[in-house]
Write a sequence for this structure.
C-alpha cells in the first residue's frame, strides 16, 4: 500500500509538473531525489514496457500491465458528469448508487476454466445432437426383423426422373434455361407432359369407349322394357290375376326367406323386422276381422254356402297368420340342420370307443375331448361359412388346441363347463345302445333308410332318447356318467348313477377316501360280460378308422385270456385309495401324560390336553386325480424328466404361465401352415449375400435436420416430392380458409 | 377340396387335380396336410426333441475356421477391410511390410515395404482407390490400391513426414480428411502436408483414434493416461474424457447406433459406453483372461469381436456381458488385431505368429447358396433352439465350448481371485461404519473419473 501511495504521489507530481509549463529546476531536483529514495527501497522497480500491440502475435509476456494496481474511482467520472449538462438525471443517479456499492467486478477466468466451460458446452451440444438417433435406435432394437444392407434400392431399372432427381442447376446457362421453362410453366419433371397431354392420356381408348357405350345402350333398353312391362301389368283389371300374383310373390318371398335364414342371417333378420312391422299393422287394423261389410255378408251366407264359409275361414286364417308372432329359429334347430347337412357326423370318426373296448384300461384324456372338439367345429362352421377357408381352418385348429391344452392343464373334466359336449356324447351312447336293443323293432325302418344315411337315424335316435330318458332315467344316466369318465362300455352298467352329480357335490379327497368306497360292488364285474356287450355296442357305421371286426374279436379274446384271473378294476381302486391315504396328513400326538395333572396306570390325559397336543398338519394341495375316480396321476418328482425341465423362471418372463404359453405354442410345420411357420421362424437379421453393409447414413434417417433451406433444393424434383409439397400447400390453404371462416363467424 | 357327387346308387369321390399334381417334375410331391391338432399330439415334447437335436447338430457342425493366410514375416500389427470390395483385405506387419490379400483365393496379391519399423495403422479410403499407412518412421503414406505396372517400383502416392510417431489412423466416411494419433490427435486434409487441426488434452500420447461412422464429425481416442477422449471436429476443444482404472487399447464405434462405442481394455474386459452418459459404461463384457487388444463391430451393429492377448478371439452380443463364441487354435498366438467382414459373414484375425486367420462369424452356418428348404430348416432350427434355450439340456449343449487347458486354468484362477476380492470387500464393509464402504456395481468399479 505504501508503495502505491508513493506512486500516486509521483504521478501527481508528474501531472503537476507537466501542467506547470515553466517547470523550475527545484522541482526537477526534487523529483530526482524522490526517485532515488524510492529506488533505494527493498523492492526493485521493474522497467515498465510500453504497451504496443501492433503485431499479430502478442506474447503474454510483452503485454504491459501498467496501471494494474490503480483503480479508477467512480468519483472521477462523476465529477465530469455533474458538470456536463447533457447527462440525464437517471444516469447520474445510477452512477451515484454504484459509487456507494463496494463490489468490484470479477477477474476474467483463467484459461483452464474457460476451456472447461467451452468443453462442457460443446459436449452438451454434441450429446443433444446425437440424441436425435434415440428413436431410430430403439426402433431397430425392438424390430422383429432387420434387413441389411439398410435402404436397399429396389432392383430393376430406374426411372429417368429418379436418376435425374437431385441434380442442381449450376451453370448460368442452365439457370437461364430453367428460368425460361419456369416462366412458361413448362413441366420440368416427372411425366414430362403438359396438362393437356396428361388429360388426353387419361382419356379412354376407342375400344373401351365403344364397349362402354354398348353397355349403356343395353342397360337403357332393358330399363325401358321393364318399365313397359310393369305398366302393362298394372293396367290389368282382373282381381283374380292380381290375387294370384300376390300369392305367388308371397310364396316366393317365403322361399327366399328360408334360404336367407341359412345363407344371410342378417338380411333375414331385417326381413323378420319387416314382417314384425306388418304384424303390428295387422293387429292395429281390423282388416281381416269379420267386422267388414264383406265379412258380415259372408257370415250370413256362410250358413248356406260352402264357398262363403271357406272364404270366411281363409280370411280368419290370414288374420291369424299375420298376427302370429314370428318364431326365431332356435339354435337347436340350427344344429340339427347342420348335422343333417353334413354327410357324416363328426363323432363317427371317433375310433376311441373301439380302442376302449379292446383295451379298457388305457383311457387317455383324448377320448373325452374329441366329441367336444367336434361340437365346437359344428358351431364354428355355422358362424363362419363364407370366411376365408384356410385362415378359418388355422384359427379353428388354434382354438381346438387351446381347448385341449386347457383340458390337459386342469385334467378335471368339469361337466358343468361343457354341457354341449355332453349332449353330443350322450347321443353317441344312445345310438349304440338303442341299436342293439331295438334292432328287431327298427329292422324295417333300417331297411328303408339308406345305411349310409346315418344322420336321419341319428336324429331319430336322438328324439327317441329323450323319450326313453323319462322311462329309464337312472340306467341311462349311469351309462352317460360312465362314458363320461371312463370307457363308456366297460363300466357302463355297473357304476352307480350317483356319480353324475359328483362335480356338483362338494366332495373332498378325504371324504372320498374315508367313506366306504362305492366301487365295492364292482367286484362282481365280470369282464367277459362287459366286453361282449361292448362288441355288440359298436354297430354304428364307422369310417375306415374302425378296426376290423375279426381283429377286434381276436384282440378281445387275447385280453380276456391275459386277465383271466385278475380283478383289475378292484386292484386299481385299492391302489388309488392307498395312494390317497399316503398323501393325507397324519395327526401327530404330542400329549405327555402327567404334565399338569395326575399320571399313572389307568389314567388318561384329559380331553383338553389331548385336543391341544394333537397337531394336525396342513393338508397338502388336492391331488390332481381327485375328481377322476379312474385315473391315478403320480405327483412324485420324476428324476429322469427333471433333468429336462426348467427349474427356474427364465429372465424375461414374469410368471410361469407366460413362460409355459411361450413353450406351448408349436412353431413347426407339423402344426402350422406354411405361411404361419414362415412368419414365426423368420430370422431377426437378414443379410444379403455378398453385399457390403454400410454404416447408417444420417441423411437417410434424420431428414429434417439435413434438408437444405429453400432455394437450394434440387432443380428437378420427384413427382412424389412435388405432390407432397402441393399437399402441404393445399392443407395450408385449407387452414387459411378455415381461419377466415372462423373470422367471418 | 373333396366333394361327393351322388347319383341314384353310385357315389363318386372326385378331387381337384391341383391338389396333388405337381407343377413341374422337379417339384416335390404335394402332401395334403391336415393340421387338426388331435392328429398331431404331443407338440411340445416333439418340438423339444427337435430342439435338442438341432442344438446337437449345431454343435456338431460348428467348424468356424475357414482359412489361414500366411506370408508375413513378422507379427501382424493391423488389418483393414477394403471399403468397396469384400474379397480384399490389407494387413500390416511389425516389420513394416504391408500385404494385400484376396480372400476367396486365399493368396497375397501384393507386398509393399511401407515403413521402417512397425506399420502402426492402415486405413482404406472410402472410395476404395487408395489406402493410408502410418508407421514407426513418423510418416503417413498414401498408396494406390491398384498394383503398379510391371517393372514399376512400388511407391506411395503421397508421403507426409510428421514430427512424432503416429500410432493410429482412420479415414472419414465421406470426406477427404483423415485423422491420426500419436502425441496429439491430428486431423489432416488429403491435399495438405500439415494437419488442419490438432487436439491435445494433457501430455499423454494416444494409441487409437476412430471416426464415428454415423455421426461422421465425432471422434474418439484412447490415450495412454488410461483415458478415452471424445472430440467433435466442429468444436474448438475436445468434448470429454473418461479415465478408467486401466488403459484402453482400442475402441470401435457401433456402425448402426450412433452413440455407442466399445473399448478394449487392459483389465481383460470390454466396455460399451453411451457417449451421453460417460460416467458408467452401459455394459461390461467379461470373459477374456488377458488384456484385450482389439475390437471390431459387426456391420449390423448387433455383435462385436474382440482379440486378446490370451490367444483367443471372442464374439460378444453388444448388450450381453458374456461372449457367445470363442475361437482359438493350437497355433494361434497372441491375437493383435481383428476385423469383422463387411458382409457380416466372416471374422479376420491377425496374430503374433504371422498368420491372418479367416473365421466364420456363425460357427455352424452353412456357407454358400442355400435352397429355400434348407434356409427354412435352418431358420426353424434356430428358432427352436431359441425357444427352448432355457431348458437345461439344450442350454448345456448350446453353451459347451472347448477351451485350451491353460486358458481354462487361468479362468479358474481369476474366478478365485475375484471371489477373494469380493469376500475381502465384504469383510471390510462388515467391519466399518455402515455406509462408509459403498456397494459398487461391476459397472461402476472401472471408471476412475469423468473429466469435463
Amino acid at each position: 500500500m505504501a508503495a502505491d501511495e508513493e506512486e500516486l504521489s509521483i504521478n501527481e507530481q508528474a501531472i503537476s509538473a507537466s501542467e506547470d509549463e515553466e517547470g523550475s529546476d527545484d522541482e526537477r531536483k526534487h523529483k530526482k531525489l524522490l526517485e532515488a529514495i524510492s529506488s533505494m527501497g527493498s523492492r526493485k522497480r521493474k522497467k515498465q514496457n510500453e504497451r504496443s500491440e501492433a503485431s499479430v502475435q502478442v506474447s503474454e509476456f510483452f503485454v504491459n500491465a501498467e496501471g494494474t494496481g490503480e483503480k479508477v474511482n467512480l468519483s472521477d467520472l462523476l465529477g465530469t458528469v455533474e458538470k456536463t449538462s447533457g447527462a440525464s438525471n437517471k444516469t447520474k443517479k445510477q452512477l451515484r448508487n454504484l459509487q456507494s456499492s463496494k463490489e468490484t467486478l470479477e477477474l476474467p477466468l483463467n484459461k483452464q476454466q474457460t476451456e472447461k466451460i467451452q468443453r462442457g458446452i460443446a459436449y452438451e451440444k454434441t450429446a443433444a445432437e446425437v440424441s436425435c438417433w434415440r428413436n431410430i435406435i430403439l426402433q431397430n432394437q425392438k424390430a422383429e426383423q432387420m434387413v441389411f444392407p439398410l435402404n436397399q434400392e429396389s432392383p430393376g431399372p430406374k426411372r429417368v426422373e429418379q436418376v435425374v432427381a437431385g441434380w442442381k442447376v449450376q451453370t448460368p446457362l442452365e439457370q437461364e434455361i430453367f428460368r425460361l421453362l419456369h416462366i412458361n410453366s413448362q413441366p420440368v419433371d416427372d411425366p414430362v407432359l403438359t396438362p393437356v397431354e396428361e388429360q388426353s392420356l387419361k382419356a379412354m381408348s376407342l375400344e373401351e369407349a365403344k364397349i362402354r357405350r354398348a353397355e349403356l345402350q343395353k342397360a337403357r333398353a332393358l330399363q325401358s322394357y321393364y318399365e313397359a312391362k310393369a305398366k302393362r301389368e298394372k293396367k290389368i283389371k282382373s282381381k283374380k290375376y292380381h290375387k294370384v300374383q300376390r300369392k305367388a310373390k308371397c310364396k316366393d318371398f317365403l322361399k327366399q326367406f328360408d334360404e336367407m335364414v341359412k345363407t344371410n342371417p342378417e338380411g333375414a333378420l331385417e326381413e323378420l323386422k319387416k314382417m314384425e312391422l306388418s304384424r303390428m299393422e295387422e293387429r292395429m287394423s281390423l282388416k281381416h276381422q269379420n267386422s267388414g261389410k264383406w265379412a258380415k255378408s259372408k257370415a250370413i251366407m256362410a250358413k248356406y254356402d260352402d264357398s262363403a264359409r271357406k272364404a270366411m275361414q281363409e280370411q280368419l286364417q290370414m288374420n291369424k297368420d299375420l298376427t302370429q308372432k314370428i318364431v326365431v329359429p332356435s339354435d337347436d334347430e340350427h344344429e340339427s340342420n347342420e348335422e343333417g347337412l353334413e354327410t357324416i357326423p363328426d363323432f363317427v370318426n371317433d375310433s376311441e370307443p373301439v380302442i376302449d373296448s379292446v383295451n379298457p384300461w388305457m383311457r387317455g384324456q383324448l377320448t373325452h375331448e374329441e366329441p367336444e372338439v367336434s361340437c365346437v367345429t359344428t358351431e364354428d362352421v355355422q358362424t363362419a361359412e363364407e370366411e376365408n377357408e384356410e385362415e378359418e381352418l388355422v384359427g379353428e385348429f388354434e382354438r381346438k388346441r387351446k381347448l385341449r391344452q386347457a383340458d390337459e392343464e386342469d385334467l378335471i373334466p368339469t361337466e358343468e363347463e361343457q354341457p354341449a359336449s355332453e349332449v353330443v356324447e350322450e347321443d353317441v351312447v344312445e345310438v349304440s345302445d338303442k341299436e342293439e336293443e331295438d334292432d328287431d323293432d327298427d329292422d324295417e325302418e333300417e331297411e328303408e333308410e339308406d345305411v349310409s344315411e346315418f344322420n336321419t337315424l341319428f336324429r331319430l335316435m336322438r328324439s327317441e332318447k329323450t323319450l326313453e330318458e323319462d322311462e329309464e332315467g337312472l340306467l341311462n344316466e349311469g351309462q352317460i356318467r360312465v362314458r363320461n369318465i371312463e370307457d363308456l362300455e366297460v363300466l357302463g352298467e355297473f357304476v352307480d348313477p350317483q356319480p353324475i352329480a359328483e362335480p356338483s357335490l362338494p366332495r373332498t379327497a378325504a371324504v372320498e377316501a374315508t367313506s366306504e368306497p362305492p366301487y365295492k360292488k364292482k367286484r362282481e364285474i365280470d369282464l367277459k360280460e362287459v366286453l361282449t356287450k361292448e362288441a355288440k355296442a359298436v354297430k354304428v357305421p364307422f369310417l375306415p378308422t374302425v378296426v376290423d371286426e375279426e381283429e377286434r374279436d381276436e384282440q378281445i379274446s387275447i385280453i380276456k385270456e391275459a386277465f383271466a384271473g385278475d380283478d383289475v378294476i378292484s386292484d386299481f381302486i385299492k391302489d388309488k385309495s392307498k395312494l390317497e391315504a399316503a398323501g393325507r396328513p397324519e395327526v401327530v400326538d404330542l400329549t405327555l401324560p402327567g404334565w399338569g395333572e395326575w399320571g399313572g396306570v389307568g389314567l388318561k390325559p384329559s380331553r383338553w390336553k389331548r385336543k391341544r397336543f394333537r397337531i394336525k398338519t396342513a393338508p397338502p394341495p388336492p391331488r390332481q386325480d381327485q375328481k377322476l375316480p379312474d385315473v391315478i396321476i403320480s405327483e412324485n418328482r420324476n428324476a429322469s424328466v427333471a433333468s429336462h425341465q426348467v427349474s427356474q423362471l427364465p429372465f424375461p418372463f414374469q410368471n410361469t404361465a407366460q413362460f409355459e404359453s411361450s413353450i406351448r405354442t408349436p412353431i413347426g410345420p407339423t402344426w402350422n401352415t406354411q405361411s404361419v411357420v414362415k412368419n414365426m421362424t423368420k430370422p431377426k437379421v437378414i443379410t444379403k449375400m455378398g453385399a457390403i453393409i454400410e454404416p447408417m447414413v444420417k441423411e437417410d434417417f434424420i431428414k429434417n435436420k439435413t434438408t437444405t433451406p429453400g432455394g437450394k433444393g434440387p432443380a428437378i424434383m420427384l413427382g412424389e416430392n412435388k405432390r407432397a409439397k402441393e399437399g402441404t400447400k393445399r392443407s395450408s390453404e385449407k387452414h387459411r380458409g378455415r381461419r377466415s371462416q372462423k373470422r367471418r363467424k | 377340396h373333396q366333394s361327393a357327387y351322388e347319383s341314384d346308387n353310385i357315389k363318386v369321390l372326385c378331387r381337384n387335380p391341383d391338389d396333388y399334381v405337381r407343377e413341374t417334375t422337379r417339384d416335390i410331391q404335394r402332401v395334403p396336410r391336415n393340421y387338426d391338432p388331435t392328429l398331431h399330439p404331443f407338440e411340445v415334447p416333439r418340438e423339444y426333441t427337435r430342439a435338442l437335436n438341432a442344438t446337437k447338430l449345431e454343435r456338431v457342425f460348428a467348424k468356424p475356421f475357414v482359412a489361414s493366410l500366411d506370408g508375413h514375416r513378422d507379427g501382424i500389427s493391423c488389418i483393414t477391410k477394403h471399403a468397396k470390395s469384400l474379397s480384399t483385405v490389407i494387413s500390416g506387419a511389425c516389420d513394416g511390410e504391408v500385404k494385400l490379400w484376396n480372400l476367396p483365393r486365399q493368396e497375397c496379391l501384393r507386398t509393399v515395404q511401407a515403413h521402417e519399423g512397425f506399420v502402426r495403422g492402415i486405413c482404406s479410403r472410402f472410395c476404395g482407390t487408395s489406402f493410408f499407412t502410418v508407421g514407426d518412421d513418423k510418416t503417413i503414406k498414401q498408396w494406390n490400391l491398384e498394383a503398379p505396372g510391371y517393372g514399376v517400383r512400388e511407391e506411395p502416392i503421397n508421403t507426409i513426414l510428421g514430427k512424432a510417431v503416429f500410432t493410429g489412423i482412420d479415414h472419414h466416411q465421406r470426406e477427404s480428411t483423415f485423422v491420426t494419433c500419436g502425441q496429439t490427435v491430428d486431423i489432416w486434409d488429403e491435399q495438405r502436408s500439415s494437419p488442419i487441426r490438432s487436439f491435445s488434452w494433457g501430455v499423454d500420447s494416444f494409441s487409437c483414434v476412430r471416426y464415428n461412422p454415423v455421426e461422421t464429425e465425432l471422434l474418439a481416442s484412447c490415450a495412454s493416461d488410461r483415458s478415452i477422449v471424445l472430440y467433435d471436429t466442429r468444436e474448438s476443444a475436445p468434448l470429454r474424457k473418461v479415465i478408467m482404472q486401466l488403459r484402453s487399447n482400442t475402441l470401435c464405434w457401433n456402425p448402426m447406433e450412433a452413440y455407442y462405442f466399445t473399448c478394449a481394455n487392459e483389465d481383460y474386459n470390454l466396455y460399451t459406453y453411451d457417449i451421453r452418459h460417460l460416467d458408467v459404461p452401459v455394459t461390461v463384457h467379461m470373459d477374456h483372461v488377458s488384456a484385450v487388444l482389439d475390437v471390431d463391430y459387426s456391420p449390423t451393429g448387433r455383435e462385436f469381436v474382440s482379440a486378446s492377448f490370451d490367444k483367443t478371439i471372442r464374439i460378444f452380443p453388444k448388450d450381453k456381458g458374456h461372449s457367445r463364441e470363442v475361437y482359438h487354435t493350437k497355433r494361434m498366438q497372441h491375437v493383435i488385431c481383428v476385423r469383422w467382414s463387411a458382409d457380416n459373414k466372416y471374422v479376420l484375425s491377425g496374430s503374433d505368429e504371422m498368420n491372418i486367420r479367416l473365421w466364420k462369424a456363425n460357427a455352424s452356418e452353412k456357407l454358400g447358396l442355400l435352397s429355400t428348404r434348407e434356409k427354412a430348416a435352418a431358420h426353424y432350427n434356430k428358432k427352436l433352439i431359441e425357444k427352448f434355450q432355457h431348458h437345461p439340456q439344450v442350454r448345456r449343449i448350446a453353451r459347451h465350448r472347448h477351451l485350451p487347458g491353460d486358458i481354462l486354468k487361468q479362468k479358474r484362477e481369476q474366478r478365485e481371485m475375484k471371489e477373494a476380492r469380493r469376500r475381502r470387500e465384504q469383510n471390510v464393509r462388515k467391519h466399518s461404519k455402515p455406509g462408509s464402504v459403498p456397494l459398487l456395481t461391476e459397472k461402476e468399479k472401472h471408471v476412475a473419473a469423468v473429466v469435463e
